[in-house]
Amino acid sequence: MDISKLEKETLYMSMPTVKKDYSRHGREIANIDYLSYKKTLSDFGVRKLANRQSEYCFSDNPREFVQDLYKEQADTSQTIDYVITTYHTYPLLEESSTAIYNKKLLNNRTGLAFSICDSDAMAPIFAIDWIKRTKSNGVVLCLEHVFSKWQTTKAYEYPLKDAAALFQVCHSKQAFEIKGYTTQINIFQPQSSLEESLTSFLSQFSLTPEEIICIPQCKNIQFLYQMNKLFPHIYYKKTATNLYTADVFYSLSEMRPSYKEEIEHLLLLVISNAGNLGLVLIKRT
Predict the structure, then answer these.
(1) Which residue has the higher pLDDT, 95 or 80?
(2) Residue 181 and residue 178: Cα distance in Å, rounded?
């Protein structure tokens, strides 16, 4: 199991700021980007299932709230070397690259901007890894943009929902210290082997499952049930929706600072559609 353990360097993560103002309405998109996307799906025989219910959507494209989310950060004095946008659901573009547009919204002229997608909920971990490897500071954006006429998840999974979360990763003190991460544990193994893999990861940091709070992605009820069996202390957001890249950061933002404050370490846990688990171990500062 490949584990990135931060020992000789210190990397911090800010408390995520998230958008929660939803309004129930239909979303009609007819621009060339989305029409091309639908044609590509059709050409390759990819079938989307009819939506089971109306989705909760933002009043606007999730990227339009990036500037406000950044202003809500406790500390905006850090130099931004990278603006990294992550997403799973297809971004319904209006007129420009979302990555470049987000950089503009942050009034950043010197940093580099790019997106990470096609990695399910793993994308933010890859963003953290990039910032670590480049020894830089960055802003990570997790944006999900759903189209109300289509259901892009399987019938037994929680429904998708618009999402916008923002956090900073830098080398100056923030709300959390990043201790380590991995994306190499597969959930499709016997329960005993899975438990052993998770315990092995935590043991690299001299921790046991009893000494951390697990914050899992709200993928579906079966996944949450499985994580509840593995971890004595667990927390996830109250709404039964899957926000993919943004999901665990909504839960982290929702969790009260005083919640089991005697436990310093938190484990952000996401899952890809291929069954790989992504773990990020953080510590309250």
Answers:
(1) 80
(2) 8
